[in-house]
Specification:
The two termini are 40 Å apart. β1 and β2 form a beta hairpin. The protein folds into two domains: 64 residues, no CATH class; 165 residues. It is 45% helix and 19% strand. The strands form two sheets. A six-stranded mixed beta sheet has the order 1-2-3-7-9-8. Strands 4-5-6 form a three-stranded antiparallel beta sheet. The chain is built from seven helices and nine strands; from the N terminus they run ααααββββββαβββαα. It is of the alpha+beta class.
Length: 256
């Protein structure tokens, strides 16, 4: 913001026009940061366009009426189609699909927690899976099916031209935080394995470990967990241990 030029008249008295600039700037910044601002702009543009067209074709009074009607209709439409739940805790289509798949594993001894918040951070673990194979922090992703998924020998994951390094790092962070917090509750060290399931595009491998994260198609989730259980027969968790870990995880990572 441009500062007013200095004069020799001395410091401005409190309440002078120059003192209102910071307040105005804060107000503008608050409006710009409001998540509803794009909706208001869109509604205003639609109403103005409808009003101008009708005013040009008929009369300015009809134009005002048309603008008001469009604004009202858009408000009603948005109220019926926009969720009032904060974005951070909305269940995405990918998360719903993963939940359905995990629900079918309850008979095999698996316990799950969903939308687990990491205290002191904004991290939300999509799914924490506890079963005979161990403990897994599963991240559910839905990507554009038109873009291919590929992995490099250097341990990078791409969706089309876009690197998913940040997503992999985030998955590792969530699993690490889950392990730390649950271990503190249990009083012993616990390993939590990070995994990422992808819906939408074809994943051209069965399971790939990329930068420490198991990445695979969402439809392979149950087979993945069963394979992990077979591979860890000597270290499988029994029912009592699964229940203890589940209880500790529910306290350490409260669901939203």
């Amino acid at each position: 913001m441009t500062r007013p030029a200095r004069t020799n008249a001395g410091p401005a008295a409190p309440g002078a026009a120059g003192d209102t600039e910071p307040g105005a700037g804060r107000a503008l910044a608050s409006i710009a940061a409001d998540p509803r601002t794009p909706t208001w702009i869109r509604r205003g543009v639609l109403a103005a366009a409808a009003g101008l067209v009708v005013a040009f074709l008929a009369d300015w009074r009809f134009g005002l009426t048309a603008a008001a009607v469009v604004a009202i209709l858009d408000t009603v439409h948005r109220s019926r189609t926009t969720a009032v739940i904060p974005a951070a805790v909305r269940v995405t289509s990918a998360q719903r699909r993963t939940r359905r798949r995990l629900r079918r594993l309850s008979r095999a001894g698996y316990r799950t927690l969903h939308a687990c918040s990491v205290p002191g951070s904004t991290c939300i673990i999509d799914h924490l899976v506890i079963g005979p194979a161990g403990v897994f922090a599963v991240d559910s992703e839905r990507w554009d099916r038109r873009l291919p998924v590929r992995a490099t020998q250097g341990g990078q994951l791409f969706h089309g031209p876009y690197s998913q390094t940040g997503r992999l790092q985030h998955a590792q962070l969530e699993a690490g935080e889950a392990a730390r917090l649950i271990s503190a509750r249990l009083g012993r060290k616990l390993r939590v394995r990070p995994a990422m399931v992808i819906y939408g595009p074809t994943v051209p491998w069965t399971v790939a470990r990329i930068s420490g994260v198991d990445v695979f198609s969402g439809r392979r989730l149950r087979r993945y967990l069963r394979a992990q259980a077979r591979a860890s027969r000597g270290q499988r968790l029994d029912d009592a241990e699964i229940e203890r870990i589940h209880a500790a995880a529910a306290l350490a990572l409260p669901s939203r």
